[in-house]
Amino acid sequence: xxxxxxxxxxxxxxxxxxxxxxxxxxxxxxxxxxxxxxxxxxxxxxxxxxxxxxxxxxxxxxxxxxxxxxxxxxxxxxxxxxxxxxxxxxxxxxxxxxxxxxxxxxxxxxxxxxxxxxxxxxxxxxxxxxxxxxxxxxxxxxxxxxxxxxxxxxxxxxxxxxxxxxxxxxxxxxxxxxxxxxxxxxxxxxxxxxxxxxxxxxxxxxxxxxxxxxxxxxxxxxxxxxxxxxxxxxxxxxxxxxxxxxxxxxxxxxxxxxxxxxxxxxxxxxxxxxxxxxxxxxxxxxxxxxxxxxxxxxxxxxxxxxxxxxxxxxxxxxxxxxxxxxxxxxxxxxxxxxxxxxxxxxxxxxxxxxxxxxxxxxxxxxxxxxxxxxxxxxxxxxxxxxxxxxxxxxxxxxxxxxxxxx
Length: 406
Prior knowledge:
Layout: H1 6-15, E1 41-47, H2 54-69, E2 74-75, E3 78-86, H3 91-103, E4 108-111, H4 115-120, H5 122-128, E5 132-134, E6 148-150, H6 156-169, E7 176-181, H7 184-197, E8 208-210, H8 222-229, E9 235-239, H9 242-254, E10 261-264, H10 271-276, H11 279-285, E11 294-297, H12 306-319, H13 325-344, H14 350-357, E12 371-372, E13 378-390, E14 393-405
Parallel strand pairs: 1-3, 1-4, 4-5, 5-6, 7-8, 7-9, 9-10, 10-11
Antiparallel strand pairs: 2-3, 11-13, 12-13, 13-14
Helix pairs in contact: 2-13, 6-7, 13-14
């Protein structure tokens, strides 16, 4: 993984036209210069090292590492060692990761991609009394946890943001075909969609829930898609990510659908959009018409604010890739830990850091300013993004703000 010392980070920021590191870090971060006496600490990172979610896990690792690169490998003024554990795909594998990291003596935990894993480790985290900054998966069942915080979102929120938008955009008689995987993730997303859309109107037909296959075959979605299109569908709403997103969109177009597609931003985020882009010749032949897909997400790499200009430019230079919401949320997890550890004092305990997380106030983030709400989830803006060409490549371009939720 690419490394960058403090001098190199400052040179980079100077090249970007900034006046110093604090411009992208929020209040209090300039105290790094006097933090040489900080006692070494450990932070646990729980991510998948293989399988369908590995790309998201890599983004989480990159976001955390970028924060450390830009702060001389310190968090809260303390030299930090990141200890990584494999999350797997089950509650049992997640619990094993938490138990191992707690035995390692970590001050805090972060990461977790799979909502099933996140839901399954709730009790282990609460019993360990070590704060977890979840930087991706966030099922609605976590709302009552005391030691679990999220720098991402609750999974009902992208559906809710799009539900409000679709109420205004679509006629009441419009038929929306709703697709997703079986499991808590899609259930939360669809519940958010219903909550916002079904005010004096109803979604037509039941959601179509498909097998949660991390490596779906080329025909997995064809049958359900064909049946939905036979009912004269006016629009498609879907919740897929990774390989599932790629296969669903390809099979949807293979069945002849050319109408609007709406989805949480995971459908076209990161490597997924790259796989949906067949290049100029492919688009000319109409093989993949990802252009025009509209998604809701809490971040886009083209947001025009100081924190994001610094973050996105440094990320591209370090990892030769466009930052995703996953990388941004992991970066923000380190940012809020940095603030909380400073507030917790010279020799903080995990319990003191957990209490301090509730006192950090507003966070100056690449996504825009946000703060934790009472359920330890960001109160933040959601953006409408449209897939369109940016130069020679497809990109998620922000069209406007949808809502502030949380």
